[in-house]
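Bumping with the actual sequence this time:
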Amino acid sequence: MDDRRRRFEAQALPHLDAAINLARWLTRSGADADDVVQDAMLRAWRAFDGFRGGDMRPWLLAIVRNCWRNSAGDRKRRGHVAMPEEHAEMNGEALTFSGPSPEASAINTDVGRKLDAAIASLPHEFREVLVLREMEDLSYREIASITDSPIGTVMSRLSRARTMLREKWLGEVESTHAL
């Protein structure tokens, strides 16, 4: 294995989960997210010699975002609209389980699904900064770099995203209690 490949793998691969997470939230489709991440990793590999050091994660996530934007434009031109992906997947868990009760699991799953749906319903520029800040724990400066936006815009979008999410969540809670 050559030195360039070893350095790329050491710096980029630890951030692969973050890249996949961001791509899933942007595309709303596991298959499309995989395509975006694959394209992003290939582009990152090709551009790796131009990487000037520092933190690899914002650089890689910016590439993921740009690949998503390019692929979204391609889908619009082709008339493709991504369908929402179901989160329920079988993962080969053992038949015996000593965790929470089925009722507690169902409640937690339902709450998680509702939260995911509320986040997914946000406009992409707000969803994007919310995911990068709250799920990927990036700084405002890193998010600004990824989104190519001023820090003030990032802060404003994040504040609005949180407000919209809170309103959607409280609206959901009120409609649930009204039943």
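The tokens above came from a reply further down the thread. The chain has two domains: 1-82, 98-179.
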